Amino acid sequence: LAIPAEVRYHVQRMPVSQGKLTLGYRTNTAYRDDDYAALLFYNGVLGGFPHSKLFQNIREKASLAYYTFSRLEKHKGIQLIGSGIEVENHERVMEIIMEQVKSIKKGEISAEEMENTRRALINQFKIVADNPYSMLNLNLDGLLGGKDEGLDYYLRKLAEIEVDDVVAVADKVYLDTIYFLRAGEEVKA
Questions:
Q1: Residue 14: strand, helix, or coil
Q2: What does the pLDDT look like over 19-30, one tens digit per residue?
Q3: Containing H/E element for 145?
Q4: Rounded CA gap, 117 and 162, in Å?
Q5: What three-state secondary structure class fits 51?
Q6: Which residues pair with 26 in a beta bridge?
């Protein structure tokens, strides 16, 4: 597996029973940006839900992970992709992750993936409306992010997102850091 030279790669050893692989991506899109809803979609298609590409390809088809996910740090423009894996599978899992990111950048997103992601994201936002604490967090995100649009704005934006929007936001995403926690004694530098 060829890892670009500019990507930071850190391996840590600890007495653990399974490896933990985390890939950190710079999204170049944050909560305040107009294409943040498209980034939510990108994350959802990639690894945010059980129907997503990472879950289906790493866990279900290849059976290489105990868990796998992607999540956004919305105000920092960071996406984290994580998997709990057997140590010997870490290169193959990284390959699959990178393949799935590349497939989205090429627009290889099915109508079913789009619709499942749209439904899941809209449901997440509708659940926010039923919980005062979640509404408080949404409003706080707006204040912190400098974009206080509210729930209706996101419901409308999510209903409008198309594959081209997801591809455009995916094109701004790049791999920054790979962290791999594996079994063994930690080596002191």
A1: strand
A2: 999 999 999 999
A3: helix 132-145
A4: 11
A5: coil
A6: 78, 174
Residue ranges of domains in the chain: 8-183
CA 163 to CA 110: how far, in whole Å? 9
What tokens does 96 get? 């699959």
Reference 13, options 83, 87, 81; nearest CA is 87
* CATH of span 8-183: 3.30.830.10
Q: Which of 38, 58, 174 is nearest to 117 (CA)?
A: 38
* pLDDT tens profile 49-86: 999 999 999 999 999 999 999 999 999 999 999 999 99
Query: In terms of residues, how long is the chain?
Result: 189
For the CA atoms of 36, 40, 45, 50, the dihedral, rounded to the nearest 10 degrees, stands at 170
Long-range contacts of 53-56 (CB under 8 A, 24+ apart): 53/100, 53/103, 53/104, 53/113, 54/81, 54/83, 54/96, 54/97, 54/100
